[in-house]
Design goal:
By secondary structure, the chain is mainly beta. About 5% of the residues lie in helices and about 50% in strands. The chain contains three helices and 15 strands. The N terminus is likely disordered.
Length: about 260
């Protein structure tokens, strides 16, 4: 549960430090708008059934940050109170993304997971290729992302340029380290979720080996095959059992959710 919100979103860390990937430079936002909100629910496999144990709510607003127009995106992840006695999670991640470059200006991580607390406030200096966190200043690649900005950036990838099996790499800064991330494009298919049946784009993120994940490409992620590319379903084994994460609610999408084939 160390990376609770990242597990919900479907992006985690690779096991190698970055060699300055610049793959996430120069993209334009065509997939989301200020005012967008969506909710993801986490289901844990308990024997023969999946039980809902928590959820994450992600909201996007438009604000000014140091004189720049910025998307302020907040992700709040929590376990339901009936499960707090087992493992209480109260996570909050924030990013401010420059609307002109789609690169993060500031990233804030404030998590409390089973009493394990982390607070880190990171400011990015693009001219100096550095990131200054609560703990110090670190060199970073020019187009480095944080964990939330990377998700919204990835929603703007033109997957028609890739064929199934292709890797899409980029760099991410988290916990005062730079990591190489990639997602492997798997193609398109229909996926059944608790919200309904969708036409979807499928990919697999590379996972770091740790207490929760075995590492490798065991996690599968589906996003809507329309202009929004909103997360629909995440499916992954964990150290004990498995989880499913489904989109259960949304509001103020940039486009109609035309990928929805049939609502439950």
């Amino acid at each position: 549960m160390k990376y609770f919100l990242m597990l919900l979103i479907g992006l985690t860390l690779s096991s190698e430090r970055s060699q300055a990937q610049d793959n996430f430079c120069g993209i334009k936002n065509t997939s989301f708008k200020a005012g967008e909100s969506f909710t993801l629910k986490v289901f844990y496999n308990l024997g023969s059934m999946f039980v809902g144990a928590g959820e994450a709510v992600i909201n996007c607003t438009l604000e000014k940050y140091n004189g720049k127009d910025a998307y302020h995106i907040v992700g709040d992840g929590r376990t339901y109170r009936t499960y707090d006695w087992i493992f209480k999670v109260r996570d909050r991640y924030e990013t401010y993304i420059d609307t002109a470059t789609m690169l993060p200006i500031r990233f804030i991580r404030n998590v409390n997971e089973g009493g394990y607390k982390i607070y880190n406030n990171v400011g990015f200096n693009r001219e100096a290729s550095s990131a200054t966190s609560t703990n110090g200043t670190f060199k970073v690649p020019a187009c480095v992302q944080d964990v939330i900005s990377a998700i919204f950036y990835a929603r703007n990838i033109d997957f028609s340029k890739y064929k199934p099996g292709d890797k899409i790499p980029f760099s991410m800064f988290l916990d005062d380290e730079v990591y190489e991330i990639y997602i492997r494009y798997m193609g398109k298919e229909e996926v059944d979720t608790r919200y309904g049946k969708f036409r979807a784009i499928k990919f697999k993120p590379l996972l770091i080996k740790g207490n929760t994940f075995k590492g490798g490409e065991d996690m599968s992620v589906w996003v809507s095959d329309d202009g929004n590319k909103i997360p629909l379903r995440i499916d992954s084994p964990i150290s004990v059992g498995s989880i499913k994460v489904d989109m259960i609610n949304y509001a103020n999408l940039r486009y109609d959710l035309t990928s929805l084939v049939k609502k439950r």
